[in-house]
Amino acid sequence: MIEYTYNDGGRIAAGFKGSCGDCVTRALAILTGEPYKECYDALALAQQNAGLAKSARNGIHRKVYTPVYQAYGLEKIALPPGPKPTFAEAYARHGDCIVSTSRHVCAIVAGALDDIREMQTQPRKAISVWVKK
Description:
Shape: globular
Number of strands: 6
Structural class: alpha+beta
Distance between the termini: 26 Å
Order of helices and strands: EHHHEHEEEE
């Protein structure tokens, strides 16, 4: 199992309130160390350029966030066919990274899942992994 650290990525400090589906933004801010608001604005602009609402609070499609992650110096790791790695295995193989499931994205830093919700009730599988170049 992987450890868990509560981390909102700087969302509250940036003046955002309430809950929302901003996991793509939080993970980017946590892994890169960039300010939450800067990451939010970059992703919201990408949403708008894709013909969607200019907001990063209600989820972002991977086709929209992929070029933004790349612009922040992240590289998607191609996972081999077959069983996908657990979050702990992804960290062991790749170090600090962003992992995604089919419905959530989160950062793993210094061996701990940094997120606003603990996902440890079962070993989670990563369907994609992003690392710093």
